[in-house]
Amino acid sequence: METVKKQADTINDLETELSKARKQERSYEEAIDQLQHDLDTLEQDNMKLKALANNPERQGLGSLFQLFCIGG
Question: What is the separation, in whole angstroms, between the first and last Cα of the chain?
């Protein structure tokens, strides 16, 4: 009978650990999604800056202000 109780306790412990691991997994997935969104935004900003740098007219700091403050 004691063996059955130990097994039940072990099962409960494992279920608790599994629940914690799933919660942590969701947390990591959310962090990855946020990081991917940030990366996408930075890549878009980088492309805009490259285009601005390659612009022969070189519109100056006003364009940079518009790009980052207004969302260009």
Answer: 72
